[in-house]
Amino acid sequence: MISLLRQLSWPELRHHPWRHGAALLAVMLGVALAFSVQLINQSALSEFSSAVRAVNGVPDFELRAQRDGFDEALYARVAAHPQVAIASPVIEVETFAFDTRGERVALKIVGLDALVAGPLSPALMPRPAEGADRYALLAPDAIFLNASAQQRLGDRVQVQTPSGSATLRTQGSIAAQGAALAVMDIAGVQTRFGWTGRLSRIDVRLHAGAGRAQVLRELELPAGVRAAAPDEAAQRVSNVSRAYRVNLTVLALVALFTGAFLVFSILSLSVAKRQPQLALLGVLGLSGRERLALVVAESALLGLAGSVLGLLLGTALAALALRLLAGDLGGGYFPGVAPQLQFDAVSALVYGALGVVAAVIGGWMPARAAQQLAPAQALKGLSAGNAGALPAWVGPLLLVVGVLLALAPPIAEIPLAAYVSVACLMLGGIACVPSAVGALLAGIAPPSNALALLAVERARHQRHTATIAVAGVVASLSLAVALTVMVASFRDSVTQWLDTVLPADLYVRAGSSLTAGDVVTLPAEMPARAERLPGVQRASAQRVTSVQLDPARPAVVLIARAIDDPAKSLPLIGELVPLPAGALGVFVSEAMVSLYGAAPGTTLTLPLSGRNTSVFVRGVWRDYARQHGAIAMPDTDYRRLTGDTRVNDLAISLQPGANPSTVQHDLRALATELGLDGALLEFASVSEIRATSLRIFDRSFAVTYWLQAVAIAIGLFGIAASFSAQVLARRKEFGLLAHLGLTRAQVLRVVAAEGAVWTAAGALLGLLLGLAVSVVLVKVVNPQSFHWTMDLLLPWTRLAALCAAVMVAGTLTAWLAARSAAGRQMALAVKEDW
Amino acid sequence: MNGHLLVEGLAKRYGEAAVFSDVDLTVARGEFVAILGESGVGKSTLLNCIAGLDDVAAGRVRIDGTDITTLPEPRQALFRREHLGFVFQAFHVLPHLSVAHNVGLPLLLQGRPDATRVQAVLAAVGLADLGQRLPQTLSGGQLQRVAIARALVHRPQLILADEPTGNLDPGTAERVMDLLSAQVRAEGAACVLVTHSRAAAARADRVLTLTATGMRDGLPGTA
Q1: In chain A, positions 371-390, which contact chain B (CB-CB < 8 Å)?
Q2: Which A positions 785-824 lie with beta carbon below 8 A of chain B?
Q3: B101 touches chain A (CB under 8 A)
Q4: pLDDT score at A369
Q5: B152 at interface of A, judged by CB pairs closer than 8 A
Q6: What is the DSSP code string of B11-69?
Q7: Which residues in chain B are closer than 8 Å to A736, comparing Cβ atoms?
Q8: Of the ranges A267-281, A333-347, A759-773, B171-185, which one carries the lowest mean pLDDT score?
Q9: Would the ipTM clear 0.85, i.e. be above it?
Q10: Fewest Cβ atoms closer than 10 Å to its Cβ: which of A181, A463, A592, A833?
C-alpha cells in the first residue's frame, strides 16, 4: 500500500496541489472550528466552576432558603449541634459600586464572620493590606476586594444600598478569582444592606463520621430552608449553558461536514480522472478491495494532515477568542469570567480523530467507485460514471428518517434527535439529486438541437458525475438558507416581542441587574408621585425578584406588575384560561411550561415570604429575556402576599409633546426628594432599549454568521473544484466535438449552459432543502434548546440573493474551466498517446 | 465540391523541433490514399494540419479550392462540419449518447437531422438493430463501425482516418477495413488513411510514406 500511495497517489497530489490543498484546508478549518469551540467551552466552564467553588467554599453542605434568606436565629441552633464542627454564617448581596470614572460596576458582597469562615472559605478570607488596622476584619465599613474588583475600584468604594449609597474603605484583598467580588464583616452587611436579623446561608462542616441526614433531621429546619450541595451553583451553570454549548459545537461540526464534503468532491473527481490508471491496475491484478483501500488511505492521509493543522489552528483560535470575546462567545452564561486556555489532550485526540473520520467518510463513495469500476469498459473510456452510486432508496429513506426524528422529544434537554434529523435531511436531499434530476429529465425527449442534445443526454446518462458538483451547491446553499431563515425568524420575533413588552416611552431604574434587585430599588412612593409630574401621562411600576422552584435549576424570575388586560400587556401565546373563583392568577413564560410543566389550567406552588402559595396558571407569554422561566403576577396580589412594596422599574408614558429631558430632570429631583440620590437613576428610551437588545442579539449570533460564511466559502470552492475537474476530464470529448465541427465558442456555450442548468437545479434543491432544515431549526431545535418559540419568517430577498450568488458562481466557474480546457490544443486531446 | 485535396510544402514545428517539412500531397476526388511512416514521424499531426486542427509552420492546405490554413477558427470548424469526416484509433464515441445519436451528430450540428439517413448508414455498417443501445454495451469492432458510420452520415467529400484498426484484433481489423474502403468508395468520398499496418494500406489506391523531409511514393523501405 505504501508503494502504491507513493507511486500513484503522490504524483496525483503533486500534479494537482491546489485541489488537494483545498480539501486539506477544508478539513483543517472544520477541525479548527470544532476544537476551538470545545476548548473555549471547557476552559470557561472550568474557570467559572472554580470561581463559584471559591465563593462557596468547601463545606459539607449549605443551608439555604429563597432569595430573601432566613431568620438568623437558626444559626445558633446549627452552631450548637454536637455533630457540627464549624457553622459559618454568610450573607450574599448583589449591588453596584462606582469606579474611579463614576461608572457602575456590578459587585457581589459576601458578609462573613472572619473568625469562623477561614477553614470553610479560604479563598474569601480577608487579607489586610500592609499597614491596615489588625481589627479591620471586623470593621463595619471595611471592604476587601478580589483582583477583578481591585482593577476597577479605588481605596474608597461607593456602593449602592437600599437607602441610597454608602462609602466603604478598602482595607485589603481576597484570593477568590472570577467576577468582581468583595468581602465585609457580616454585621456591616446586615446593617448597610437591610439584612438585619437574616442570613443568606450557613456553611456547615460536620465532625468526622457524622451522618448528614441525621443531623438535618435533628436540626428540624424551618419551612423554606433546605440543605444544598456546595457545587450546586456550578452544576446549575453547567446545566443551563449546556444547550448553548452544544449548539455552538454542532454549528462548528457543520464546518467539519462541509470539509468532508469537499474531500468527497475532490476525491470523486480525482478517481474519475484516474479511471484509466485504476482500470489498468485492475487488469494487472489490483483487486477491487485494494483499489478501495488505496482511495480510503488517500482520504485518511488528507484527513490526518488536515486534523493536525486544524488542532494547531483551533488552539490559536480558542486563545484569541477567549481574549476577545470572553468565555461564552457572547452568550452571557459565564459573566465576569476571563478564563485562561486549558488545553486538553483527550479532546485533541477526539477532534483529531473526527477530522480523519470526516475525511474518510468523504472519501468512501469515491473509494467505492474505484472498487466497482469495470476495468475493460474504463480502458475503452466507456465507463458509465455511475459506479459507487448509492441505491435509489437511500435518499428517500434518509428524508423519511429525518422527518420522523424531527418529531422526537429532547434527550437530556438537548435536541439531539433534531440535530440528527437535520443531518439526515441534508444527506438525504443530496442523495436524491441523481433521482430528482432523472425524474425531471424523464419526460424530456432528446432535443433536435445538437448543443441541447449533448447537454440533456449527458445529464440523463451521466448525472452521477454532475451530482458531485450539484451536491456541493445543495450542501452549502441549504446550510446558508437554513441559518438565514432561522436568524431572520428569530430577529423578527424578538423585534415583535420588544414592541409588546416595551409599550412606554421611557424606562427608569436605580440599577440594571436582576441579582441586585433587592438592593437597588426605587422609593415606594415614586410611581404615584411620578404620574403627577408635568409631561407624564402614566407611570407603571414593576417589582422583579426571583424564586427557587428547583435546586437543580436557576431561579425563576417573578415579575409583579399591573396586568389589567393580559392580552395587551403581555405577548401571550394561545388562549387565556378563565380564573377560578378565589384563585390567584399568574402568567408564565414558555420556559415554565417546558421546564416545570406549568401549562395553562395547572397550579404552581410559589415559596413567598416563607410560605408556599398556590397560584393558577392562566396563560403563557413569549419571553426572550429570561431563558430559565418567568412568572408575571398582579402587583396587588404580590404585595398582599409578601408585604414587599419595593419597586425596581418604572415605565413612563409621556404626554404628547412632552420633553423627555425635562421629564428625566424632574424624575431625578423627585427621587432625591424621596431619599434616593437622583444621580443613581438610569434612564433608557424605548428606542435605546430596542437598539441595545438587537445589538446583543446580533453579537450572540456573530459566531453563527461566521460559521455560515465559512460553510458557503467551502461550498463555493467545492463547486469551483468540481466543475473545473469535470471539464478537464472532458477534454477528449471536447477534442472530438472540435473534430466534428463545433467552434470553441460553441463548446464554451455548452459547458457554461450545463453549469448554469446544474447550479440552477442545485440552487432550487438547496433552497427547498434549506427551508425544510430551517423549519426543524425554528420549530424544534430552538424550543427544545432554549424553551422559547418563534414565528417562521422567510426573507425572500436575501434567499434569492443567496441563490443568485451561487448560480452566478457556478456558471462562471464552469465557463472559466471550459476556457482553460477548450483551448487551441483541445483537438489534440483525442490523440491516444497523449 | 470535387474533393480535391492539395497540400503544398507543408511544414510543422513544435518550438525549435521540426516534425516534418516539405510535405506535398494531392488526393483526387474518390481516391483512397494510405500514408505509412515510422512512429513519431507526424502522421497524425499531418491529418490534424489537413483538418485545420493544428497550426502549420509553412505551406498550404487546399480542400476543393479552399485554403483551410488561412481560415479563422470558427470558419475552420464550420468547414470540417460540412466537408470532413473522421475515424480515430480510439473510436471516441460519446458514452452518454445512444448509437443512433452518436452517428447522427454531424447532421445535428449542421441543423438538418435525418433519422432515415442515420438508419441507412447504420444498416450499411451492419448495426441496424443497435441504434438505441448505449456504447458501453458494444464491442471494439462495433464501436469502430459506429465511428465509420458517423464519419460518413453527412456525405463528406474527404474522410481522414487515423489508425482506425490500431485497437482491433487482425480479424476484426480486416473486416473494419473492408467496410471502410467499401463505404468510402460507395459514397464517392476521398480518403486519407494513416496507419502502421501494411495490410490496411493494401486496400488503398496509392500508398505513400511520410518522412521528416517530406512525402514519397511507396511503402517504407522501398526505393
Answers
A1: 377, 380-385
A2: 824
A3: yes
A4: 82
A5: no
A6: EEEETTEEEEEEEEEEE-TT-EEEEE--TTSSHHHHHHHHTTSS--SEEEEEETTEEGG
A7: 88, 92, 94
A8: A333-347
A9: no
A10: A833
